[in-house]
Structures are given as C-alpha cells and as structure tokens.
Specification:
Elements lengths: L1 H10 L1 E4 L10 E7 L6 H13 L5 E8 L5 H7 L6 E6 L5 H11 L4 E5 L10 H9 L4 E5 L7 E3 L3 H18 L10 E5 H8 L9 H11 L4 E5 L2 E2 L8 H20 L5
Parallel strand pairs: 2-3, 2-5, 3-4, 6-9, 7-10
Antiparallel strand pairs: 1-4, 5-8, 6-8
Helix pairs in contact: 6-9
C-alpha cells in the first residue's frame, strides 16, 4: 500500500491556481474531491469568502482524487483572494489517500480537512481553532455530541449504520469518541504529519485509523459539536462501503498487533 502511494505521489500534478503569499499561512484548508465538478466551484467560493474575512492568513489545497469529470478544470477557473492550489493524479485511490496528499502539501500551522460538500459549514472552523488553541492536537467536528445542531439529517438507515459503526470503533479500537466519520477535522500540522506517514487505509475507513494512531502517539484528541446539514450526492455506497469500513477496523487492530503503528 505504501509503495503504491509513493509511486502515485511522485506522478501527481500540482498546480498553483493563484499566487501564493510569501507569509506562511496559519491555516491550510484541504478539500478532497472526487467527481465534484457540479459543486466544487461554489464550495471554494464559500471557503474563500470566509477566509478572506478571517483575522489570519490561510490557503486552500484541493486534491482531485482522479476524477473522470472536469473537477480540476472547475478548480482552475475559480478566482480567489486566498492562495489556492490544486493537486491532481489520474488514478482514483480514495478519500483517505486524498486527505493524506493534501496534508503533506499543506504549509499552515493548522490543517483543516473538510468535505467538498461543506456539510459542516466552513464557519464552524472557528470552534475547532478555539479548541486547538486550548491544547487540542487533533480536533474533530462531531454530529453526535449535540444532535440539535443537525439541520438536515441523513436517512434513518444511514444514521443507524453510523451509530452501529461508532460502537464497533469503541469496541475494537477503544476510541471513546462519539463521531469518527464527520468530514471536518483540524490538525496541528507538525504533530499530525508523522501519524499520516503510518496510515495504510486509503478509503473511507481512514478516519478511525487516523484517530487510533494519533491516540497511540499520545496526541490530544478533542471532539467539538458542529452544525451539520446532509448534502445529497454522497460517494459512500451504504452496503459496499459499509462492509469495507467494518473490515478496515479489523485491519487496524491487526496492524496494531503487528506493531505497524509503533
């Protein structure tokens, strides 16, 4: 897996879409994207509008995970005030791989990973930054800590599946967290990079592996309730990807037994 990642990383294309600031940004916003041509432009515009008014420097890094549509072309066409970079490679590897590539390319003190649909509004980043300022090495947005903040729910089947999966995460990995799968997480870049270097899962199951390895490394993980609104067009296929994610939990435990995360 790691050899395949290294090969793809060496062939990835990196494009500077807008001029970069000479001052290192405080926050890098990483957006993994796969077949997001219909909404990535609007999402970047919303992120840029928020960051332009923020009291800190920031950059946006979009990672096109081998999209067969014109996702990259849309990204290149967006005009932003904040520095915007595009990373693209031809083969689709998975969301976890795309986030990994974005984190490695980021230059900010903090790295925020957000889903391209902005189900958690970008403005909620302020809550995560506040938690990071109080000592959180990894700050994760949560839909489950305060469900009153959910403005539009997923289908009952998906919500039940999420609850069951979270219980399996607690049982198999010992992570006492309410929501490992929310696509809205903030990291201290220098502390999280060694964690990402140990990850083996490229798909949707990367979240629990990331948090498990971070916990083993002694990093402080804080969970913060965020506003969230379900967006149509999810790339997750409930039964197919659900089974893979459950098998990923077994793989994580097995990797740990073999000492792969040491």
């Amino acid at each position: 897996m790691r050899a395949a990642m290294a090969t793809s990383e060496s062939s990835a294309e990196a494009h500077r879409v807008t001029a970069e600031s000479s001052k290192p940004p405080r926050v890098s916003v990483v957006v993994p994207a796969y077949k997001e041509a219909s909404r990535i432009g609007e999402s970047i515009a919303r992120i840029d509008e928020f960051l332009t008014g923020a009291p800190f420097d920031a950059e946006v890094v979009v990672v096109d995970d081998g999209s067969p549509d014109n996702t990259s072309d849309v990204v290149r066409s967006v005009k932003t005030a904040c520095p915007l970079r595009l990373i693209r490679y031809d083969q689709n590897h998975g969301k976890g791989y795309a986030v990994r590539m974005g984190v490695f390319a980021a230059t900010g003190k903090y790295v925020l990973f957000t889903d391209a649909d902005l189900s958690a509004p970008i403005e909620e980043m302020d809550k995560l930054l506040a938690a990071a300022a109080k000592g959180g090495d990894v700050v994760i947005g949560s839909r489950a800590v305060d469900r009153a903040l959910i403005e539009k729910h997923q289908s009952p089947l998906r919500e039940i599946g999420g609850i069951v999966f979270n219980r399996m995460v607690k049982l198999l990995l010992g992570l006492n967290l309410h929501d490992t799968q929310c696509g809205f997480k903030l990291f201290d870049r220098e502390k999280i990079r060694p964690v990402f270097e140990k990850l083996t899962i490229a798909g949707f199951g990367f979240d629990p592996e990331l948090l498990f390895v971070a916990a083993k490394a002694g990093l402080t993980i804080q969970e913060v309730p965020v506003r969230w609104r379900h967006a149509e067009g999810s790339k997750i296929r409930f039964f197919r990807d659900g089974l893979r994610m459950f098998s990923d939990l077994i793989l994580i435990r097995w990797n740990s037994i073999k000492g792969m995360y040491s």
